[in-house]
Amino acid sequence: VGDSSVLTCPLKENTTMLIWTITPKVGGPCTLLYRADTNMAHRGNCSDNINWKFKAGLPSALEIQQVGIAQEGIYSCEVASANGNFRTTNHLTVLAPPRLSLYCDEQGSPVCEAAAGKPPAQLSWLPESSSRAEEKRHDNGTVTVLSKFTACSTNGTNVTTCMVSHPAGNWSESIAC
């Protein structure tokens, strides 16, 4: 989320037409068409952050600026040339890093929250805890994971550390309640 992504479409010799067909998981399809014979580009129902990326006068790739969860989906490119038609398909998966917060609840127990991550974050504790994580799914496809530290014994230490594992990165935070 928030980064730019460039999807390439291999150009063939004597390319006459290039079509990107985008089928997002949410919302309607979008198409970008380029005709080499007229040097004409056409957009159909595409958001402003999806554009051609030109190289040597030809659109060699598709650029998505400030990628959002709504851009997740299937991106197909078809090239028409004198040698035939060639298709490339990309599946764009958008990762949203969770926001980590660690606090003490009313009973003085540490609570770790990894908010609005996609996919859901994995939470663990140091020292080890027998706690279970609860997930709350949001309409935009993100998930908040909440875990309350529970342990039979803390071996004399009152500092606990929540560790968050996620494809977008790993984080940890410590607290004494």
UniProtKB/TrEMBL annotation:
Listed Pfam families: V-set
A Gene Ontology molecular function term of the record: signaling receptor activity
One GO CC term on file: external side of plasma membrane
Biological processes, Gene Ontology terms: regulation of neuroinflammatory response
Coiled coil feature spans: none
Subcellular location: Membrane
This protein's UniProt keywords: Disulfide bond, Glycoprotein, Membrane, Transmembrane, Transmembrane helix
Ig-like domain segment(s): 1-93, 112-176
InterPro entries: CD200R, Ig-like_dom, Ig-like_dom_sf, Ig-like_fold, Ig_V-set
Superkingdom per UniProt: Eukaryota
Membrane topology: Single-pass membrane protein
Annotated PANTHER family: CELL SURFACE GLYCOPROTEIN CD200 RECEPTOR 2, CELL SURFACE GLYCOPROTEIN OX2 RECEPTOR PRECURSOR
UniProt-recorded name of the protein: MOR1B protein
Encoding gene per record: Cd200r1b
